[in-house]
Design goal:
- The protein is 31% helix and 20% strand.
- By secondary structure, the chain is α/β, with parallel strands linked by helices.
- It folds into two domains: 118 residues, Chitobiase, domain 2 (2-Layer Sandwich); 363 residues, TIM Barrel.
- An eight-stranded parallel barrel has the order 7-8-15-16-17-18-19-22, surrounded by six helices.
- Strand 2, helix 1 and strand 3 form a beta-alpha-beta unit.
- Helix 1 packs parallel to helix 2, helix 3 runs parallel beside helix 5 and helix 7 packs across helix 10.
Length: 525
């Protein structure tokens, strides 16, 4: 159910941009895009021009040519240092358009703003009656460098063609990170040439649990899938062309039942064959701690980093039961040799070994923080249980990404009631709750602000088998996440007003976006 329109000045419908630019001034007139329009592309702006040209061809049915006297100008100017790596300036008048940035990435962000300025119906097909951009002057810079979304393809595999669409929608909202959750107990999707059984065996499970963790019902249907190296290389290139970085996640030392099913020698009980897990929840099986296990996963990480040029590599690290280590003579002996207080501390030790390997490759390791435990100091911390854990990590010197499950876990239902499709049990998460995500440090600790890279939404897919279900749960909540990660100013009525206009864009792109009543709205009459 939609909210009543808030008592807030309504901007021009063609300027209802999400996220809101830092500074926007309407200007008179419109700039028509027709067969006479030409692009003037300065050196360094070619990638942005290619992306813009594709969007404009969709909108107009025309492929706009480049010309030295073109009225639609894309210019790279490194002297615009105040715009940083992702900021841009855009001016549209009746006589032309000028997009400027200090870096190619900034131009890509500006292209997405131009895309939103197009008539909504022109986002998916040529608009009848001609296309024009509204007059406007924009200067825009994001508040945070990490504006991400995780998609879990381990629990339910999604074809790479859908991942392309997912990336394109992230780019539309100026999100710049797709974290791809490639491995888990229920499936291994990452191709590793050295270890083909990871996908041949680990990529398939016999059936899937129906209902939440602890259920005894199963669907009886096999589920499987894995990406090829060509699939992932193509995805990385597609995302890069839109200014989105794909961050791979290879989870260790827990959430590894699919790897253990493929290679039992990696476990604490190699004599016990395991299947790929068919249940949800936390599996008790974890990796063994022998040198052969470390070497195995160093190879896995090498092949992962070869495919993904992202500066960050996510190592997982959450929900690691230690019972197997505590009962394993080999694990106990390893803890003693390493000078650890006991086998429980093998968790941090194992992550440290993997983090060291990532660092030696010139990359930055990322790990989940689920409690106040100390993670290897080299890790960027992604805090999901409570913001207090993020601030504790920041005080210890970690960079942090906020991923609070109470604000940005989109596998929770969008609202209460029996009409919602299956979702993660626990609570519902409405649009206002996402919007109220707070990225500013606690009072009295302003120095921690420099440790905040940004925020990331998560969509775990235990209950989400299809792309339609993914988009139902993701939107419009991702719009609120994008707003808060890009723009530091909190103005809920203004955001809701702009969403009234932005919904037309989502409709044109086939994205579900009906907005459930938020907790602060009056009940309908």
């Amino acid at each position: 159910m939609d909210l009543p329109r808030p008592a807030h000045p309504h901007p021009r419908p063609d300027l209802t941009l999400v996220p809101r630019p830092r500074r926007l001034s309407p200007r008179p007139g419109r700039f028509p895009l027709d067969a006479t329009t030409r692009l003037r592309v300065a050196p360094g702006a070619e990638r942005a021009a290619d992306l813009l040209g594709g969007y404009l061809e969709t909108a107009t049915g025309l492929r706009l040519d480049a010309a030295d006297d073109g009225a639609f100008v894309l210019a790279l100017d490194p002297a615009l240092t105040g715009l940083g790596d992702e900021g841009y300036g855009l001016t549209v008048s009746p006589h032309g358009a000028l997009l400027r940035a200090a870096s190619p990435t900034g131009l890509l962000r500006g292209v997405q703003t131009i895309r939103q300025l197009l008539p909504a119906e022109a986002l998916s097909a040529p608009a009848g009656g001609g296309v024009a951009l509204p007059g406007v002057e924009i200067t825009d810079v994001p508040a945070h460098p990490w504006r991400g979304m995780l998609l879990d393809v381990a629990r339910h595999f999604q074809p790479v063609t859908y991942l392309h669409r997912f990336v394109d929608l992230l780019a539309l909202h100026k999100l710049n990170v797709l974290q791809l959750h490639l491995t888990d107990d229920q499936g291994w999707r990452m191709p590793v040439t050295a270890y083909p059984r990871l996908t041949e065996v680990g990529g398939r499970r016999a059936e899937s649990m129906v209902g939440p963790a602890g259920s005894n019902r199963f669907d009886g249907r096999p589920h499987g899938g894995a990406y090829t190296r060509a699939d992932l290389a193509g995805l990385v290139a597609y995302a890069a062309a839109r200014g989105v970085t794909v961050v791979p996640e290879i989870g260790v030392p827990g959430h590894v039942r699919s790897a253990l099913a493929a290679y039992p020698v990696l476990g604490n009980h190699p004599e016990r064959p395991l299947d790929v897990w068919t249940r949800w929840g936390v599996c008790s099986n974890v990796l063994g701690v022998g040198d052969h296990v470390l070497d195995f996963f160093r190879t896995v990480l090498d092949e992962t980093m070869d495919l993904f040029p992202s500066p960050y590599v996510h190592l997982g690290g959450d929900e690691v039961p230690t019972e197997e280590w505590e009962s394993s003579p080999a694990a106990i002996a390893r803890a003693t040799r390493e000078g650890l207080a006991g086998p429980r501390h093998l968790h941090g030790w194992f992550l440290g070994r993997m983090a060291d390997h990532v660092l030696r490759a010139g990359r930055r390791p990322v790990a989940w923080a689920e409690d106040g435990a100390v993670l290897p100091p080299e890790c960027t911390v992604m805090s999901w249980r409570t913001p207090e854990h993020a601030w504790a990590a920041a005080r210890r010197g970690h960079d942090v990404v906020h991923a609070d499950h109470r604000r940005v876990y989109f596998d929770y239902a969008r609202g209460p009631g029996p009409g919602e499709p299956p979702a993660q049990p626990g609570h519902s998460l409405d649009l206002r709750t996402v919007y109220d995500l707070e990225l500013l440090p606690p009072d009295g600790a302003p120095e921690l602000a420099g440790r905040v890279l940004g925020a990331q939404g998560q969509l775990w897919t235990e209950f989400v088998p299809t792309s339609d279900h993914i988009e139902y749960l993701t939107y419009p909540r991702l719009c609120a996440l994008a707003e808060r990660a890009w723009n530091p100013h909190h103005d809920w009525p203004d955001f809701r007003t702009r969403m009234d206009g932005h919904r037309a864009r989502l409709t044109a792109l086939g994205v579900p976006h009906d907005t459930l009543r938020d907790r602060t709205a009056p009940a309908p009459a």
